[in-house]
Every structure is written in structure tokens, then in C-alpha cells.
Amino acid sequence: MNIRKTTFILITIILFFSCKKNNLEQELYKIIFSYMKENIPKTDVIDSMKVISIDTLTPSSFLQLYNQSLNNQIELLNQQFLEAQELENDSLADLIGKKNILTFNKIDSVERLLNSPTLDKSSIWGYFVITQIFITHPDREKEVLDIGFPITKEMKIKELDLQ
User: Is residue 146 in some structural domain?
Assistant: First the structure.
């Protein structure tokens, strides 16, 4: 093969994969934008949204992400529990304690799945998209939200059950 043909084929392959990535990014952008419009207060306005990164998820990496989110939830609940105790609000402390137990149970279940020898560590489960979302509230206060979205390969946002 001559150098022109090789260069042409290489450029064609690069353009093909580049377009495929842009189409995926555009589709994920639309899904997230639509989801956010449905889930923010109607009085808020999404000024813009930026996709920071897109990573593929396997069933294993999705469970690791979920496990990390549950552990972050435990830290938050522990902090809220201590604050409720400081305020001597026993009923709130009890409620938070019950949520803490439920979250620990979920962590145990996820960790059992993560340790399973049959856990799929190679097929594509979906994508993890990290975004920056710029919002204006009715009082004209602006807010920037850094949010990661797990999205299945069927292009559905998977809400993590942290409660």
C-alpha cells in the first residue's frame, strides 16, 4: 500500500471514531439535560451544562461506584447523627440511626456482590458521566453543581438508592 492510501484509511478511521464519540456525548448530554430539567425546582433555570468526562462502566465498576456512594452516605449520616445528639434531639437521632443501619445493610449486600467470583468485570454496563451544571435560582443567585450520572447502556439514568 502506498502512503496516500494508508493516510486516507487512517484519517477515515479517526474521523469515524471521533464522530461516534461526539454522537455518544450528544446523546448523553440530552439525557442528562432532560433529567435535570425534570428534577430541579421549576423556578430554577439551567444556564448551561458541560460534560467533563465520560467513562465506561462494567457491572463490577458500577457496584464499586455504588459502594463508594453508600460509604459517603454513611459519613453524612454519622455527621447528622452527631449533630442531632448535640442538639439532644433523640427522635431525629433515632431516625438517622435507623437510616444508618439500612445503609450498612446495603453496603454488606453490595460487598457480597463485589466479592462474588461470578461478577462480570468486562462487559459494558453503561457510562459514568461527570458534568458541571450552571443554574440560576429565582433570587438570581447562581450555583454550579458537579454531578456524576451513571447511565445504563440502554441510555437510562440509574438513580442510586442511598436511603
Answer: yes
* pTM of the predicted structure, to 2 decimals: 0.77
Domain assignment present for 158 = no
* CA atoms lying within 13 Å on the CB side of residue 130: 7
CA dihedral 39, 42, 43, 49 (to 10 degrees): 50
What residues contact residue 100 under an 8 Å CB cut-off, 6+ apart? 74, 77, 78, 81
Q: Is residue 163 part of a domain?
A: no
List the domain range (segments joined by +) for residue 133. 3-152
Total domains in the fold of the chain = 1
Please indicate, yes or no, if residue 80 is contained in any of the structural domains.
yes
157 three-class SS? strand
Per-residue pLDDT of 42-76, as tens digits, reads 999 999 999 999 999 999 999 999 999 999 999 99
